[in-house]
C-alpha cells in the first residue's frame, strides 16, 4: 500500500454526504432488484448520513453542542490544551485525544437541532421529525436485533423523507459545495429525471417568490430578478408554479399580472399551458386599447400579451407585476416600469441587459448543468467547410453586387452557397436518419433565403414536394404564414409520425420553439451567442432513444457557448 493511501481523512460534512448518497443509491438498487438486503443497507446508510449532517448543523453554530455533556467537554478541552504540543487543539480533537468525552446521542442530537437552531421541521410532532423517528426505530432494530421489515413501508418512508430532508439541509447547511453539488447528486441517485427536475424547479420558484416579495414597492426597487432555465428543463412549468403562488400573496391582491411575450406563437402556447394545467383563466387582449381596459378594470387579472402592445406611458400609476417570458434580447428597451410596479423575467438565455432591467439572477439551471445531469443530451458540433470563393464554381457571383451587398453577408444569401448547403444537408440528414430517428431545423439569414433554400432542396429531391403539408418532408415557416398556418406547420412538425422532418426558418422565428424530436440543427448564417445557446438547448432536448444532438455549422462559428 502506498503512503498516499495509508490514511483516510474525511470531514464531518463529507462523511455525512457520502452516507446519504450511499444510502439512496442502495434504495434505488433495491427498487430495481427488490433485494431486501439492499433495503437494510439503505436504512443504515441514510440514518447514519442524517446523524452526521445534523451534527454538522450543530458544529457550524457551536462545536461544543456535539458533545453529550457540554460542560464536561469544555473542561476536558482545557485539560487537553495544557498537554505538550496541544496548546492550539480544536474542539473536535477531543474525540481523538480524550476517551472521557462522548458525542451526543441521536435523540438529544435531533432535539438540540430543533430547539437551538429553531428548525420547526425537526420539532417533536413535525412531519419530517416523525419520519426520522420511524427510520430511527427501523435502524435500531436492524443494528441491535433481528427484525422483519415491511419492505414496501420502509421503501416508501425513504422516498417520503427525501424532499423534506434535503429542503431543510439546503436551507440550513452553510456550505456552497453541499448545496450546489451534493444535494443534486443525491436527488439524481434517488429519483428519475422528471422527479429531479421537480426538485430543481421548486427551489427556483421558492427563490423567485422571495425575491418578488422583497422587490415590491414602496420598500423594494421593483426588480424581482431573472430566472434562467435551459430549454427542456420546464421553464413554462416553473412560470406556472410561480404564477399559482403569487396569486395567493396578499401583498399582490391589488396587482394585475401581465405576462409578456414577443411573438404571438408564444402567446398561444403559454395560454394553452396555463389554462390546461391550472384554474387560472388568462385574458389575451387583441389591441393596446383592450389591454388598457383590462388594467383599468380594477380586477386582479392575469393577462398574456405581446410586448408590442405595451405602452409604458399608460402604466405609470397602475399596480402591475410584469412577468417576461423568453423575451429575445433587445426587447428590454420597449419597456420601462412604473414606480408602483414590479418585474421578473423567465428565460432560457441570460443577457447583461436583462439583469439591468429585471434585477439579479434569482434562480439558474443552465445548459451545461442540464447536460451534466443527463436532463439534456450531449451536443456534438460538426463543421462543414468549403471555401466561399469556390462555392460558385459553376456560376461566378457578380462582383459588383457582392460589393454593394456587404460581401460576407451576401455570400450566405447567394444561390451558389445555398445550393451547396442544400446538397450537404440532404446527404447529412439522410445518413443520420439511417442511424437514429429525429427531425431537424435549418437556420437561414432571412425569409428570401429560406424560400431559395427550399427550392434548392426540392430540386435535388423532387419527391419531397407535396401539396399537403402533412405529406411533405421539408417546409419553410415564417411570419409570412398566417397565425393558423404557422400553428398547423409547427403541430405537424411536432407529430412524430408525420413526414415533415426538415423545417427551414430564421433563428429569431424558431427561438423559443420546443420540440423534443429535433436532434439536428443546420446553421447556414451568422447568429448571436444567445441564439447559439437557444439552438443548443433545443437540439439537446431529452427524448427516449436520443444519444446525442448534432449542430452542423456551415460558416465556422465559435461554439464555446457562454
What does this structure look like?
- With 562 residues, the chain is of the alpha/beta class.
- It contains 21 helices and 12 strands.
- A 6-stranded parallel β-sheet has the order 3-2-4-5-1-6, with helices on both faces. Strands 7-12-11-8-10-9 form a 6-stranded parallel β-sheet, sandwiched between helices.
- α2 runs parallel beside α7 (151-172), α6 packs across α7 and α17 packs across α18 (447-460).
- The model is unreliable at 392-408 (pLDDT under 50).
Question: Quick gist of this model?
Answer:
The chain has 562 residues and is of the alpha/beta class. 48% of the residues lie in helices and 12% in strands. The two termini are 44 Å apart.
Topology of this protein?
Layout: H1 12-33, H2 36-59, H3 70-80, H4 94-97, H5 106-116, H6 127-144, H7 151-172, H8 176-190, H9 193-215, E1 223-229, H10 235-246, E2 256-261, H11 264-277, H12 288-295, E3 302-306, E4 320-325, E5 342-347, H13 352-358, E6 361-365, H14 367-372, E7 379-383, H15 399-404, H16 408-411, H17 415-435, E8 439-444, H18 447-460, E9 474-476, H19 483-493, E10 502-506, H20 507-510, E11 518-523, H21 529-539, E12 549-553
Parallel strand pairs: 1-5, 1-6, 2-3, 2-4, 4-5, 7-12, 8-10, 8-11, 9-10, 11-12
Helix pairs in contact: 1-2, 1-8, 2-5, 2-6, 2-7, 6-7, 7-8, 9-10, 17-18
Keywords, separated by commas or semicolons:
562 residues, alpha/beta, 6-stranded parallel sheet, 21 helices, globular, SWI2/SNF2 ATPase domain-containing protein, SWI2_SNF2, Type-I_R_enzyme_R_subunit, P-loop_NTPase, restriction system
Amino acid at each position: 500500500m502506498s503512503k498516499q493511501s495509508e490514511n483516510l481523512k474525511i470531514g464531518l460534512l463529507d462523511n455525512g454526504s457520502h452516507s446519504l448518497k450511499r444510502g439512496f443509491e442502495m434504495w434505488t438498487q433495491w427498487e430495481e432488484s427488490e433485494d431486501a438486503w439492499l433495503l437494510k443497507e439503505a436504512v443504515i446508510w441514510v440514518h447514519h448520513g442524517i446523524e452526521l449532517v445534523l451534527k454538522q448543523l450543530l458544529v457550524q453554530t457551536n462545536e461544543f453542542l456535539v458533545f453529550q455533556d457540554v460542560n464536561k467537554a469544555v473542561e476536558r478541552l482545557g485539560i487537553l490544551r495544557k498537554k505538550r504540543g496541544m496548546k492550539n487543539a480544536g474542539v473536535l480533537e477531543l474525540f481523538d485525544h480524550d476517551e472521557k468525552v462522548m458525542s451526543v446521542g441521536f435523540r438529544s442530537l435531533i432535539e438540540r437541532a430543533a430547539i437551538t437552531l429553531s428548525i420547526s421541521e425537526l420539532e417533536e410532532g413535525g412531519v419530517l421529525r416523525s419520519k426520522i423517528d420511524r427510520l430511527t426505530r427501523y435502524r435500531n432494530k436492524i443494528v441491535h436485533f433481528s427484525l422483519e421489515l415491511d419492505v414496501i413501508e420502509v421503501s416508501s418512508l425513504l422516498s417520503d423523507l427525501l424532499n423534506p430532508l434535503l429542503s431543510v439541509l439546503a436551507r440550513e447547511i452553510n456550505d456552497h459545495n453541499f448545496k450546489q453539488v451534493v444535494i443534486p447528486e443525491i436527488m439524481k441517485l434517488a429519483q428519475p429525471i422528471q422527479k429531479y427536475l421537480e426538485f430543481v424547479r421548486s427551489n427556483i420558484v421558492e427563490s423567485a417568490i422571495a425575491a418578488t416579495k422583497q422587490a415590491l414597492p414602496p420598500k423594494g426597487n421593483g426588480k424581482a430578478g431573472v430566472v434562467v432555465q435551459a430549454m427542456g428543463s420546464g421553464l413554462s412549468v416553473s412560470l406556472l408554479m410561480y404564477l399559482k403562488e403569487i396569486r395567493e400573496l396578499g401583498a399582490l391582491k391589488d396587482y394585475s399580472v401581465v405576462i409578456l411575450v414577443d411573438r404571438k406563437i408564444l402567446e398561444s402556447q403559454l395560454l394553452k399551458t396555463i389554462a390546461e394545467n391550472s384554474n387560472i383563466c388568462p385574458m389575451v387582449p387583441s389591441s393596446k386599447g383592450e389591454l388598457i381596459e383590462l388594467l383599468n378594470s380594477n380586477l386582479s387579472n392575469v393577462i398574456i400579451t405581446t410586448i408590442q402592445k405595451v405602452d409604458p406611458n399608460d402604466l405609470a400609476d397602475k399596480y402591475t407585476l410584469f412577468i417576461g417570458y423568453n423575451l429575445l434580447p433587445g426587447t428590454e428597451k420597449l419597456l420601462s416600469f412604473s414606480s408602483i410596479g414590479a418585474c421578473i423575467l423567465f428565460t432560457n438565455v441570460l443577457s447583461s441587459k436583462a439583469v439591468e432591467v429585471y434585477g439579479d439572477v434569482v434562480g439558474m439551471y443552465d445548459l451545461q448543468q442540464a447536460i451534466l445531469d443527463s436532463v439534456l443530451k450531449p451536443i456534438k458540433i460538426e463543421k462543414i467547410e468549403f471555401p466561399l470563393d469556390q462555392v460558385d464554381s459553376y456560376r461566378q457571383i457578380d462582383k459588383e453586387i457582392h460589393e454593394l451587398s456587404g460581401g460576407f453577408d451576401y455570400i450566405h444569401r447567394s444561390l451558389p452557397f445555398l445550393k451547396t448547403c442544400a446538397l450537404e444537408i440532404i446527404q447529412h440528414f439522410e445518413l443520420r436518419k439511417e442511424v437514429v430517428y429525429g427531425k431537424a431545423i435549418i437556420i437561414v439569414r432571412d425569409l428570401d433565403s429560406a424560400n431559395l433554400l427550399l427550392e434548392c432542396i426540392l430540386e435535388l429531391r423532387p419527391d419531397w414536394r407535396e401539396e399537403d403539408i402533412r405529406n411533405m418532408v421539408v417546409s419553410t415557416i415564417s411570419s409570412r404564414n398566417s397565425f393558423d398556418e404557422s400553428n398547423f406547420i409547427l403541430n405537424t412538425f411536432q407529430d412524430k409520425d408525420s413526414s415533415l422532418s426538415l423545417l427551414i426558418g430564421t433563428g429569431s422565428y424558431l427561438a423559443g420553439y420546443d420540440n423534443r424530436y429535433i436532434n439536428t440543427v443546420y446553421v447556414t448564417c451568422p447568429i448571436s451567442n444567445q441564439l447559439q445557446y437557444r439552438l443548443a438547448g433545443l437540439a439537446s432536448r431529452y427524448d427516449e432513444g436520443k444519444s446525442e444532438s448534432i449542430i452542423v455549422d456551415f460558416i465556422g462559428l465559435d461554439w464555446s457557448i457562454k
